[in-house]
Design a protein that fits this description.
35% of the residues lie in helices and 13% in strands. The protein has 540 residues and is an alpha/beta fold. This is Aminotransferase class I/II-fold pyridoxal phosphate-dependent enzyme.
C-alpha cells in the first residue's frame, strides 16, 4: 500500500500550466517570459526565468483568489487543516493586508473602539486610520532583564474591557520581533467572556505549534483571527502570508469583502503557489526539518554561551516573569556582554564577515533561523563571532562611532510605546489640550485616540529641530524599520523620553520610515493651540 503523499494543488496546476506551453493571448505581457528570450540566450541563468514561466493569471484551471472554487480553494482548505483553523485565506500583500482586513471587519462604523497593544506594527495604525476607529492603547509588559516589551497583562486587558464594554475586540502582537511572548489563552478567555474577538498579529510565529518543541500557536490558545507571515519564519516567498480564522465572533463574509478591497485584483500566482508549497513541504517533512533546525539553534546557543564576550536574551533571566515565558528557539537574540559594541555596531561587524542578521537595535542583534538554515550557516556565524571577539576593543565600526558620542547610561533602551492618560486624537483640531499644560502621566490603558484619514492643512504644521520637540504633538509617524513599530503616530505627544530616543536613533543612524526628514534632524509637529488660533484669526 503506497503512503499518502501531501499535495500542493495550486503549485501543481502551475507546473502543469508551464509544461503545456500554450500560446498566451492573456496577461501578463511578458508571455511566460518569452519577452526576455533574447536576454536568456545571452544569460541562460536569468534569475526570473523560471518564475515567469508560472506567473499566470485567472484563466481556466488556475482559479481566482477572490472567488476560489478550484485549486486555490483546495490549497486554502489544506492550509486551514494543517494550521488548525476553521478557514484560511491566502495573502499576497504580507501580514499587512491581513491586519487591515481584520480591523476593517470588526470596526465597521466610524468611531468604533478597538483595544490595541501600543507596540504594534505600522499596518495596525494604518488600519485604524482606514476604519476611522478609536484606539484604546494598552501598555505592554516589560521583561525586567532585557527591557523588551511583550503583550499587555491580564490585569491591563481586564481593566480595558471593563472601562470600554463597547470595544469591538482586542488586537495584540505575539510573539514580538525578538521571539518573546507569554500565554495568550487568558487573554482569549477574557475576550470571549466579554463577547469580543481576540485578534493576533502572529507575523513572526507562523511556525508556532508545528513541532512539540515550539511554543503553542495563537489558534491553539483560542485566538479568533490570526495573521501569519508564512514568508518570515517558514518557507514561502516574500509577501506570502495567511489569515486564519475560527469561531463565530468574526464575520467571514465581511472579511472576504475587506480582503478584496486591500489585496490586488491581480494577485501573484508564484507567491500563492509558494504558500501552497510551503504547507505541503511541512506536512510531508516538517517533523524532520524542524528537528534538524532545532538542533542547529541549540548548537548555536550553546556555542555562544561558551563565548564570554557575548550574551543571550533567554528565559529565566528575570525569574518567574509574567511578561516573558515563551521564547522562539529560532530567534537568537545576542549582545556584546563586554559593552564595547552596541547592537547596530555588532550587526555591522557581522555583516562584514558575511553574516546578515534580521535586525538590530541599540543593544541587541536578532538572528532568525528556520528550517532552511544549514550547518554551514551556523558554522559561519560562530566563526564570525569568534573573529569579532578576537578583535577585542580594536574593532570600531561606523555605527559604534556614531553612537558613542554624547551617549549616557540613561539612554540604554528605546521604548516603542507611549501611553498617555489623556483624551487624544490623531488630528490636532480635535484636541482640547492647552499647550502650556504639563505632559500627562503614563497609564496602562489610554483614553480613546481617534484615527482618521483626513489630511491636516499644511499651514497647521511646522518643522522644528528634534532637540526642541518635547511637549509638542507629532504630525507624522516615526517608524524604526525593522521592526516597523511606530515610536510616534500623528497627534501623539512627544515626551522628553521620546525626544531622547529620537536623538539616539539619529546617532545610531537607524533607518526610519514615515518621517519626512530621514536624517532625523527635523520633525513635523502640529502648531500649538495659540498658533492655530492666530492662524484662524489671520484668515478672517
Amino acid at each position: 500500500m503506497s503512503e499518502h503523499k501531501p499535495r500542493a494543488p495550486l503549485y501543481e496546476a502551475l507546473v502543469h500550466y508551464r509544461k503545456r506551453k500554450d500560446a498566451s493571448f492573456h496577461v501578463p505581457g511578458h508571455k511566460d517570459g518569452q519577452a526576455y528570450s533574447d536576454i536568456w540566450d545571452i544569460n541562460e541563468e536569468m534569475a526570473l526565468a523560471r518564475v515567469m514561466e508560472i506567473d499566470a493569471t485567472e484563466i481556466t484551471g488556475t482559479d481566482d483568489l477572490h472567488h476560489p472554487e478550484g485549486v486555490i480553494l483546495e490549497a486554502q482548505q489544506l492550509a486551514a487543516e494543517y494550521f488548525g483553523a476553521a478557514e484560511t485565506f491566502f495573502l499576497v500583500g504580507g501580514s499587512t493586508v491581513g491586519n487591515l482586513s481584520l480591523i476593517l471587519s470588526v470596526c465597521t462604523a466610524p468611531g468604533d473602539v478597538l483595544l490595541v497593544q501600543r507596540n504594534v506594527h505600522k499596518s495596525v495604525i494604518h488600519g485604524l486610520m482606514l476604519a476611522g476607529a478609536n484606539a484604546v492603547f494598552l501598555s505592554p509588559q516589560i521583561d525586567a532583564a532585557s527591557g523588551l516589551a511583550t503583550i499587555p497583562s491580564v490585569e491591563t486587558v481586564l481593566e480595558a474591557l471593563s472601562r470600554y464594554p463597547g470595544a469591538k475586540g482586542l488586537l495584540v502582537t505575539h510573539p514580538n520581533y525578538y521571539g518573546m511572548g507569554t500565554k495568550l489563552q487568558p487573554l482569549a478567555q477574557l475576550c470571549h467572556d466579554s463577547g469580543v474577538p481576540l485578534l493576533v498579529d502572529e507575523a513572526h510565529g507562523a511556525h508556532f505549534g508545528l513541532h512539540r518543541q515550539l511554543p503553542p500557536s495563537a489558534l491553539a490558545q483560542g485566538a479568533d483571527g490570526v495573521v501569519q507571515s508564512t514568508h518570515k519564519m517558514l518557507t514561502a516567498m516574500t509577501m506570502g502570508a495567511m489569515l486564519h480564522v475560527q469561531g463565530g465572533l468574526l464575520d467571514r463574509s465581511l472579511i472576504r469583502l475587506r480582503l478584496a478591497m486591500v489585496q490586488s485584483s491581480s494577485p501573484s500566482y508564484p507567491i500563492m503557489a509558494s504558500l501552497d508549497l510551503s504547507r505541503c513541504l511541512l506536512q510531508a517533512s516538517g517533523e524532520k526539518l524542524f528537528a534538524q533546525a532545532l538542533d542547529l539553534a541549540s548548537q548555536m546557543r550553546n556555542e555562544i554561551r561558551a563565548m564570554k564576550r557575548f550574551g543571550l536574551v533567554e528565559l529565566g533571566a528575570s525569574g518567574d516573569s509574567g511578561a516573558y515565558s515563551i521564547q522562539d528557539p529560532f530567534k537568537v537574540v545576542l549582545y556584546d556582554a563586554a559593552g564595547e559594541l552596541n547592537g547596530y555596531a555588532l550587526q555591522e561587524a557581522l555583516e562584514a564577515c558575511g553574516c546578515i542578521p534580521e535586525m538590530s537595535d541599540e543593544r541587541y542583534v536578532v538572528l532568525a533561523l528556520s528550517v532552511g538554515t544549514s550547518q554551514q550557516d551556523v558554522d559561519r556565524l560562530l566563526a564570525a563571532l569568534q573573529e569579532i571577539a578576537a578583535a577585542g576593543s580594536g574593532l570600531t565600526t561606523g555605527a559604534q562611532q556614531a553612537c558613542s558620542a554624547e551617549l549616557n547610561p540613561s539612554e540604554a533602551n528605546i521604548s516603542t510605546w507611549n501611553i498617555l492618560d489623556t483624551p487624544a486624537a490623531s488630528q490636532p483640531q480635535l484636541q482640547a489640550k492647552n499647550s502650556s499644560q504639563t505632559m500627562p502621566m503614563a497609564a496602562n490603558v489610554s483614553t480613546p485616540v481617534l484615527f482618521s484619514l483626513q489630511p491636516v492643512a499644511t499651514a497647521l504644521i511646522e518643522r522644528i529641530p528634534i532637540e526642541e520637540s518635547a511637549g509638542r504633538q507629532a504630525a507624522e509617524m516615526v517608524i524604526p524599520y525593522p521592526p516597523g513599530i511606530p515610536i510616534l503616530y500623528p497627534g501623539e505627544w512627544i515626551t522628553i523620553e521620546i525626544k531622547t530616543a529620537l536623538l539616539q536613533l539619529r546617532r545610531s543612524k537607524a533607518k526610519c520610515q514615515g518621517i519626512e526628514d530621514s536624517s532625523l534632524r527635523m520633525i513635523n509637529v502640529y502648531q500649538s493651540t495659540e498658533q492655530r488660533r492666530e492662524h484662524r484669526e489671520s484668515e478672517r
